Amino acid sequence: MRSVSDDFPVSTVLGYPRIGPDRELKHALEAYWDGRAGRDHLERVGRRLRADTWRRLAELGLDGLPSNTFSFYDQVLDTAMLVDAVPDRYRECADPYFAMARGVDGVAPLRMTKWFDTNYHYLVPEIGPRTRFRAVADKPLAEVREARELGHETRPVLVGPVTFLRLAQAAPGSPDGFTPVDRLDDLLDVYVRLLSLLAAEGVGWVQLDEPILVTDGGSPAVRHAYRRLAGHPRRPKLLVASYFGDIADALPALAVTSVEAVALDLTHGVPEDVELLRGRTVVAGVVSGREVWRTDLDRARALMAAAGATRVSSSCSLLHVPYSLRGEDILPGRLAFAEEKVAEIVALAALGPKAAPGAVDTGGTAVTGAGSRRRPDTGVTERSAYAVRAAAQRDLNLPTLPVTTIGSFPQTAEVRAARQAFAAGRSSREEYESLIEREIGRAVALQERLGIDVLVHGEPERNDMVQYFAEHLDGFAVTRNGWVQSYGSRCTRPPILHGDVRRPAPITVRWATYAQSLTGRPVKGMLTGPVTIVAWSFVRADRPLRDVTMQVADAVREEVRDLEAAGIRVIQVDEPALRELLPLRKGDQDEYLAWAVAAYRHATGGAGDATQIHTHLCYSNAADVSAAIDALDADVTSIESARSGTGVPGFGRGLGPGVYDIHSPRIPSRAEITARLQRALRTIPAERLWVNPDCGLKTRTYEQVEEALTNVVAAAGAVRASM
Ligand code: GLN
Ligand code: ZN
């Protein structure tokens, strides 16, 4: 048995935010993309952010500083560049890196998808049988040198080879049966070379991130990869880092290799066979990189003791939390963002492990206290059968193939500026609200003029579909500057759900009824569903997520009933994040889907039969959730399908497969929309087919919306006439 490598730092983090405390990277990227600033400016901002991060981590007393955790866009994309896995179509582009990330004229970007169960999105590498791996880019080495010049010795972080290949997709044109993992040995050649280059530079430790161990730990690829890498004579010591769950299945595989250290995400409990790691350094991920709550130091020390760990770290990269609490005045004493978490890690390393007296709770997230307090139920949850509801809704007098939109209309710079002025106290409520009414009037007038059948108010009062509701519900706090990277330059500011959720007053009724007062056509009320609200928030850890979601569902339910009472006949409750909370392990998915569906049905189940409930999801061909989408039991479901066909098979109620892709500024022609509708009619009967774009119009301009919707209405008319 090898001896413990006791030169591993006592305190470290697996990664750190990189967008900049004031989103400096976002602004620099956008200036570069728009041609307002050159590449040198972008490079300068990157260098400054890296320098500031290392300096700050050192100031906070952190012992082991990571490097190569910075990225101009995404660490998986960086890895593809590092091993030269650049598909041919980008090689001639002026800037292949950003072409892969964002596409350029006529060249589509790489596909983007969620990084495990987080809200961070990575770019999906394309690997084929002929991809030629080579160690080309020198980013890890360059960052090591850059840090050294600033006086810091760092541990470069690389996406591990197994995770990289498992997250890749087969390049177009690959033969049947090919999977990127088939190329493991070729990729390992490159990793071996990179490791020897780093060793030659005198680097002591390298971190290989393998979150795939959580879902795929038992695969032979893991053992093979780490036998080869660790068996190579000229290499730095290896820290294999796993996170986002328990890696019990991977422990036997790692145990037969000679990797020197393993970082475990102990926020999901201590793996049963942790003894298998004896003789190695165990790095205890006891400070959660996913939550924003202060760490219970006693429990963390007990977890360290149970795992036999003397080294402390974050459970995963701190990329998923905001930079710091500086400038925030919410929830005093309860929160920890990245900087505060680093201070906790340093403190825990100084305190060391301590077995708790008596039985230690070393299971997953502690759930303490009584169940969440819910209001007494307000009426039945189950609505009548669809046929009964459809009959009761007939007096909405909608034509066949009714045309509607998904909710938001363009958010003008004027509206955004007015919202900021109002929030900062620079304008009165009256001024702000009259501007919102003007915007609603503009959206309603446009929809009437175009001949849309079910209108929307356009959501001008909302900064964001979750934050807006969080600001109007008790139990949520919102930050001033708590930005978290979602992808590339895109950041979100997740609200913090910290207590029992209550709706002190109606939220949307004022705007929906104002819009309805302007038109004789039905206006659709617009709400965000309970699952999406919790999925895009930081949630309390002291209650099971299902209970928290149910409380939010109570609040949405009250809003549905108030809209109905105010005369709104059509109400849409969006659940675009239904799939985001799907557990990583297959075995846990059914239970989640059951409560997620129950929460949605609770939120909408107070509506009478004559009220038409719509829902919207931003995808359709997700086999793992299509049964759940059906089970939501909405009267009408609109889905993204502009890129993926007509979606949900065997769906027995109203369905609006998006007729064009709103994410692109391109105007869809009347002919192509007509063709799409005709195709949809092959699988969906005319009396249940709806006509709508595939998502909200918030990111488009009024000119684009007017042109596109003109074609949508004309196409619906043409198809109706031909029936
Ligand atoms: N109603 C929202 C909108 O139109 C839906 C957004 C979404 O699906 N993400 O903006
Ligand atoms: Zn959508």
TrEMBL record:
Cobalamin-independent methionine synthase MetE N-terminal domain segment(s): 11-305
Single GO MF descriptor: 5-methyltetrahydropteroyltriglutamate-homocysteine S-methyltransferase activity
Associated pathway: Amino-acid biosynthesis; L-methionine biosynthesis via de novo pathway; L-methionine from L-homocysteine (MetE route): step 1/1
Pfam family, one: Meth_synt_2
Cofactors that this protein relies on: Zn(2+)
Region: Disordered, residue numbers: 362-381
SUPFAM superfamilies in alphabetical order: UROD/MetE-like
Compositional bias segments (type: Low complexity): 362-371
GO biological process: methylation
Enzyme Commission designation: 2.1.1.14
Keywords linked to the UniProt accession: Amino-acid biosynthesis, Metal-binding, Methionine biosynthesis, Methyltransferase, Repeat, Transferase, Zinc
Residues annotated as domain Cobalamin-independent methionine synthase MetE C-terminal/archaeal: 401-717
InterPro entries in UniProt: Cbl-indep_Met_Synth_N, Cobalamin-indep_Met_synthase, Met_Synth_C/arc, UROD/MetE-like_sf
Family, similarity comment: Belongs to the vitamin-B12 independent methionine synthase family.
Protein's job: Catalyzes the transfer of a methyl group from 5-methyltetrahydrofolate to homocysteine resulting in methionine formation.
Full protein name: 5-methyltetrahydropteroyltriglutamate--homocysteine S-methyltransferase
Species assigned in the record: Dactylosporangium roseum
Gene name per UniProt: metE
